[in-house]
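User: Predict the complex.
Assistant: Input components as received:
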Amino acid sequence: MAPPSHFYNNNGAPQDAASYLHAGPGNAPPQDSCLLDADEFRRQGHQVIDFIADYYGRMDDYPVHPSVNPGFLRRQLPDKAPSRPESSDAFGAALRDVRDLILPGMTHWQSARHFAHFPASSNTVGALGEALTAGINSVPFTWAASPAATELEMVVVDWLGKALHLPESLMFCGGGGGTLLGTTCEAILCALVAARDRKLVDIGSGRIGDLVVYCSDQTHFAFRKAAHIAGIHRDNCREIATYRDDMFALSPAELQAAMQADVDAGLVPLFLCATVGTTQTTAVDPIRGLCAVAATHGVWVHVDAAYAGSALVCPEFRHLIDGAEAVDSFSMNAHKWLLANNDCCALWVKKPALLVAALGTEQEYILKDAASEGHDVVDYKDWSVTLTRRFRALKLWLVLRCYGVEGLRDHIRGHVRMAASFEDMVKADPRFQVVAKRQFALVCFRLRAPEELGGPKAANALNRRLLEEVNAACSGPYMSSANVGGVYMLRCAIGSTLTEERHVREAWTVVQNVASSLLTKMEMHEDY
Amino acid sequence: MAPPSHFYNNNGAPQDAASYLHAGPGNAPPQDSCLLDADEFRRQGHQVIDFIADYYGRMDDYPVHPSVNPGFLRRQLPDKAPSRPESSDAFGAALRDVRDLILPGMTHWQSARHFAHFPASSNTVGALGEALTAGINSVPFTWAASPAATELEMVVVDWLGKALHLPESLMFCGGGGGTLLGTTCEAILCALVAARDRKLVDIGSGRIGDLVVYCSDQTHFAFRKAAHIAGIHRDNCREIATYRDDMFALSPAELQAAMQADVDAGLVPLFLCATVGTTQTTAVDPIRGLCAVAATHGVWVHVDAAYAGSALVCPEFRHLIDGAEAVDSFSMNAHKWLLANNDCCALWVKKPALLVAALGTEQEYILKDAASEGHDVVDYKDWSVTLTRRFRALKLWLVLRCYGVEGLRDHIRGHVRMAASFEDMVKADPRFQVVAKRQFALVCFRLRAPEELGGPKAANALNRRLLEEVNAACSGPYMSSANVGGVYMLRCAIGSTLTEERHVREAWTVVQNVASSLLTKMEMHEDY
């Protein structure tokens, strides 16, 4: 059939692929090796470095969170890509647009006043490690596809595991092994599929609908998402209730009751996702007790330490994973609080062979080469959802080299200390309460509702309004919220690399001032 | 219980988290905001840019593939991270180690002589776009978490879709929509889970074991991997045989027969993964015919154009996806051949609501904010496996801006032209044959086995040896292989940004010389 009209050239004659091949020399476009020219890279590269350095230097001038409405940027950009670069300095023009159009619409996660969610801790070495990786641009999906990249990953996951005081059984040096993925959801999904496949061998592959997975009502949604993707029935995900009296930790006794009930109902317990440092309040599930329960049911235990895993670099936090020798897999996001820049999720497993059995390729046609055959070589494509992968090990290795384990401890302790200060300030103001005991560098707090205000719903509305007005203050802090057991609270997560004591004090002053103003309005019955 | 001994400080007294909080001012370590100091970033950043530029300048000096044995790097590195940085210029020392230890052990995907696998096309703008993203280090998991990052992604997937001549129904402007993920396996997995969930609503969630997915025996393993992860029974993945007479394309008639057989057996056809540009030989499945078959069975059609999708920027290739209006989803890796640097996989879907239904979070506690409620806002965390994500749109937008659609066409056509030259050279040497018709910039070829050599097995051995010796040539090309229908062949994939005509000619000369030497040895019965 004839191609549509715009596939014709200017003469109206149809032009097919072959006609481009036999164009005379006069028609041949320039070869594009200039697109990776070393001198051009140097020129543009120095521009970019100065651009980013200027951004860091100006960070304080930006509101952390932009005051923009949906569609603000889409409306400003053309609806299709240019046919040719607009000017001879297209790169410079684009950088100016990044500065003038894009940065003002970003949420500035590196701002010293970013206290929302969890940190995405950047630093010069991690950021430049990413730049190096992008410059080298290798695809280390097998050992052969980039031997040094694979081996550095093997080295650095052991380095990190030792720095975090993980059991040796999870590291290469102890018969296990680790890999660097993008995110926790990927890590859990990989572990879950390995566990699922092992279990289905035992009970028969037709019984996928009988498999049950366990977590608490505080577990991050990433787990439910992973379980759903892996084909676990939505009704077979047990979210076990937690209580404030237990600091929102999952109770082994409740887990045992839930598993036994499932067994009695003819179902098959499969997988437990325990959390060290939950997203809402940084609760820590008791690993040893949970593993003991899981073991009686042949259940795979994964520990999700996405946020708090970084704190394990400090020995004073190691007791939080006592009993971790019994877990099957463990993951943490080094990009959250360990300076590894987004993205960098480390996953360790006790039995890599189970990962490979679940995720490995059977077709080896283009992937094997003589060097890897018959040797103890890791092909990381078989350890993850993805086949293509980035050389993430480089930045993590640079961070560990350049700061050292003690440097990372200083980094964590500095934030924990600032969070303790913030907590003390909250406690010192009787209008406020700390809602969940602080364990790391997250403080969960709320304004106590005046008695005359009414019930819990009104108290939540008050605190929601408090957060909105705090976040609306132009040069103020940016925080987020949690809702645990029906109680709405503000979350102040300290962890941005640029955050100093003064930012924490200033943030608290803003919260106090907004609260005073809100309470005054309430007394005057203006708003309630 | 007592912590192990190394958690005690030098005095032997146990030290807990609290003791670090109340250290006197003299004991307080420095605040770590200096880790993101603008001036330090500038200093280290310029070092890194020069380092990468020097690497590009020196690229030709490296063998494409290192001659190293498993363990070569692990043996050279310490078994744990340093406690403190080794020197005051730890970063400079680490860069020297990258140069002296790591680069010599890399496979240099950016080498002009890298013809293996598929290209990972880098360029100054794409690489520096990654560096910018790493410097900004935002986490745009929701619109609110970085409005400009989300909106730029929405803009750029439409730009790219238009540039590739995709149907508007797959773009935001036509009621569909796209996102930027890491890899094709993720893209297929997302589409598959959406399709699975929709089908299970119709047939009952207990019937996951009855779902059947379809592909050809040429489809990339990523599809089988995704299907397995999603809980599709391994026995329910139909790999339909292809034939050289059909140029290894999937036949609609064979697909229809397979689907009907499954229906007759009480199974439920779910999903077809069609490929435009297979990994082994760049075969193109006939979209229109396959979609017609799929429609009669209510089957979701995904098109995996991981490699060849980039070629669609040229109108002369558009006919290869005729009928794409009927597909449900489409993905391609802009990091392979469209200068977007690893990683950047674009996924478009006709009905984003189905993706969100399958992958969306139910808990909105910390994720929503007032700005996004009630508006037509995309929260990309609900479009993918991962929640955390990188700001990939920035580099792709920079590439499209700085080269323009015509610039990308020149880039693709240059490689296609060089591949055609290579193909002509192969054809001109009667000792060789082109095994699969060249469609893009991959040439699959082999040495014809002399008659006296024996059967196909010996011919394969000869070509395997040819590849090994070609790849062992120190400053020679690096190619990979395929095995289709029992026929082993060499793959010469042209697509590195630095590759020029002369590299292609030189590569062919190496192949010819190695072949001559091999054939001479054979004649002398030295080796056979």
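Residues 139-391 of chain B form a domain with the Aspartate Aminotransferase; domain 2 fold (CATH 3.40.640.10).
Let me know if you want any component modeled separately.
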